[in-house]
Write a structure and sequence with these properties.
The complex is a heterodimer of chains A (255) and B (625). Chain A is built from six helices and 13 strands. Chain A has helices at 26-40, 83-93, 113-116, 131-144, 160-163, 192-203; strands at residues 9-17, 56-58, 67-77, 100-106, 119-127, 146-151, 154-159, 164-172, 175-183, 211-212, 222-234, 240-241, 249-250. In chain A, the strands form two sheets. In chain A, strands 1, 2, 3, 4, 5, 8, 9, 11, 12 and 13 form a ten-stranded mixed sheet that branches. In chain A, strands 7-6-10 form a three-stranded mixed sheet. In chain A, helix 4 crosses helix 6. In chain B, strand 17 (453-460), helix 15 and strand 18 (496-500) form a beta-alpha-beta unit. Chain B has helices at residues 9-16, 50-53, 57-67, 82-91, 120-130, 171-187, 192-199, 283-286, 295-309, 327-338, 354-364, 380-385, 392-405, 423-443, 477-490, 503-514, 520-528, 542-551, 556-560, 581-592, 610-614; strands at residues 40-46, 72-78, 109-113, 145-149, 165-167, 205-206, 211-214, 224-227, 237-238, 266-269, 271-272, 291-292, 313-317, 344-346, 370-376, 409-416, 453-460, 496-500, 575-576. Among the domains of chain B are: 9-21 and 30-238, 3-Layer(aba) Sandwich (Rossmann fold); 242-349 and 595-625, Transcription Regulator spoIIAA. Helix content of chain B is 35%, strand content 14%. Classes of the chains: A alpha+beta (255), B alpha/beta (625). Chain A binds chain B through residues 19-21, 23-25, 27-29, 31-32, 34-39, 41, 46-47, 49-54, 64-65, 93, 95-97, 215-216, and chain B through 9, 13, 16-18, 22-23, 26-30, 256, 258-260, 306-312, 340-342, 365-367.
Chain lengths: 255, 625
Amino acid sequence: MTETEPTLFRLRVRYQKAGRLIYLGHLEVARTVERSIRRAGLPFAVTQGFSPHMRIAFSAALPVGTGSNDEWYDVILTSYVPAPEALARLTASTPHDLAPLAAGYRDMHDETLGLLITRQDYLIRLAGCDPVALTGALDALVAQGEIPYRRGKKHKALDLAATLAAYQVDADGDGCALTLYTRSSNAGSLRPEILLAAVDGHLAGAPDTPVTSGALDTRVLAVRSVTRIAQYGVTEEGARVDPLAQDGAQGHPFF
Amino acid sequence: MRVPYENRFTEIEPLLAHVEKPSRYLDHEWGTLSHEDAAYRACLIYPDTYEVGLPNQGIAILYAALNRTPGISCERGYLPWIDMADAMRAAGVPLLSLEGAAPVASFDIVGFHIPHEMAVTNFVEALDLAGIPLFAEDRGEDDPIVIAGGPSVYNPEPYCAFFDALLIGEGEESIVEVCERHRALRDAGASRAETLRALADVPGTYVPSLYEVRYDEPCTRWGYTVPREGADVPPVVYKRVARDFGATDPLAQSIVPYTELVHDRLSVEVLRGCARGCRFCQAGITYRPVRERSADQIVSSVVQGLARTGYDEVSLTSLSTTDHSCVKEVLTRLNRRLEGTGTKVSVPSQRLDSFGVEMALAVAGEKKGGLTFAPEAGSQRLRDIINKNVTEEDLERAVRAAFEAGWRRCKLYFMMGLPGETDEDIVAIANLADRVLDIAREVVPKGQRGGIGVSISVAVFIPKAWTPFQWCAQLDDEEVRRRQQLLLHSVRSKAVRVHYHDAATSLIEAVLSRGGRALAPVIVGAWRRGQRFDAWTEQFDIARWEEAAREAGIDLHEAAHEAFDLAARLPWEHTSPGVSRGFLEREWRRSLAGVTTEDCTRGSCTGCGVCPTLGAENQLVGERA
């Protein structure tokens, strides 16, 4: 940073993706958040160049149909607005289902969200599903190490050994609650729908059924919801690092 | 019993994961205005997908007007894309409104926007999905009243059978009057027939069932429409007009969508009407008189609208924004106010002179994409016939100024098949394009010439009702194709790209533009054969239309390619934008003689008759440049 550059502030915001708005795509969410920031009247910084735009960065894209209570963005401000005030203004200017839940400042030199976040946890609620059978199918897939799948015309493979850190199956009413602890890196991340499609193949007694990305058409599994419940980093020592430590202003989660 | 008003979102939710762009069907956007509890409910439907329909300013204006009327709640509807429509039919879910996710058939009144002729099969598709009888005459006491209005309402006859009433002209006042009257009638227990008769008394309201088609005077094959024997309704329904345009709400738009739209920005309507008098142009007649908002009102609305919506782009809309008498002042002030906010100002349609380029430059910023000009005809002779008051020198100056200012791409719009057009006029289009390319190569510095792009887009001229060319035939398809080939072979430079329109779509548009009530079975027949979303090239199939027309005993080619007799009564003369027949006839004769007519906002009154007929007048806020 040079002497002449104005002082900038990095506001980090945690928000949810809930209700009907789980059906928004990543770009639609990003566009809506930017407009919310403009409506909130926050002093956002603008990039230089041919087509100036808001200086904002989001955590990794969430698929259409997947909800979350732990999404993040960093927006660069040109002047300081106390975090509780920024959070209140954003709450008033954002559609309820994308409500901001917490806001706080991070140093301009701190790691970006993209570098910091390497872990994503998902909660998947499945109706009418036997926990023992589900665990059996997951164990078989983990033993297999990877799931081949097709994305459009491209053949790819989901590397479970690298991306699935752990999982947990709990009884949930007449069904199961499956928690996935996943790792992401430049090499890839775990898309829950691909794992679910493969699990479905196992449960249907046809483990070799080809898996495709895109809309999930299951034969056995009845997916109630897929929700990202946490995103964080891990230090070399294995300690969990939250994108915003306790100093941030907290809003109220809606679910 | 009327279908109950209830939220049925849970029935479409399971379909969302399997359709394209589920965000089309979600609602819950920022800025919706409807009320959960209301004594009277209206649903306004745009007959195309969400992303095409949401930016429509007409609907935004009516939506705001109805929702601020006590006791009335207005919701929106769009036509689900074919994947969703098919999924809804398979699941037994009817067409739902957006805000309340309630069946469209449960509303008191359903209003369709008529953006253009090619929307006709979508009216049928929407009514069918909604479970409302397609024809007004088949509807019963429990069905909603179905109304329509919009820019393409000036020959309502081909599709009027689908609607109980049509609102002619500007709707911000009349739709509120119609809904309030309907509410009172409903509460008084009026029958459907009594209701429709009473709605015909609201000025600007055309109730087709109270009129009939006759053939007993000189007329076209479609006949002419007059009040039914004994029906005490006006022989001519004149359009409604906002006489004091400056007093209307400049910021009707309130909803900010999630999904990316065709026009994804704030729009502020800075003026209404255009009096340049191009003789092919229907909007140039039907939006008269010319009314401008003041510079103060525009600037404050833009600033307020951006803050309210969070948009990063604003468009100053109208038929000819650079004709606004204060456009220069407005752009200067906006540039100053919006500096450093990353906000883009855009002005649709460039005026074809150096002032137009100056204004384009005022909003362009660093990044200059392409500039679009519409000379419409290649030769001066033909431009005089159509009254496009632009000279070769205007065009050359504008193009030169544009390339000097840094633009590298230029697109020119033309029409083919204009009255009086000869092969020389087609060749002149090619020559003009070549000339523009020469100017570009002369002006643009040597190292940057690779970026130069000149393209021309040539549409087929379609004669429209209420224009001086309303009596003209459309050029037949084979001749269109011959002239397209002539054009292609006349362009010297390979660097000029030539685009032209499909003759088949133009054929249907031409038939619908000047046809009559006898076309309703053709529209329904085309829809029954699978036709919908005709405006989407990949969905359009002329064969279905031809089959449907054959079944109805109508020859589409004959209908489109027929000139009307000047003495004949025309199919649309009972729904009028206020222009006098004498003016249109005079303009037609002047065009044949190559005599131009001036713009009444820059010269004297040309006697079109709109002002005295409607009791309105031009409202300018300054001298026009």
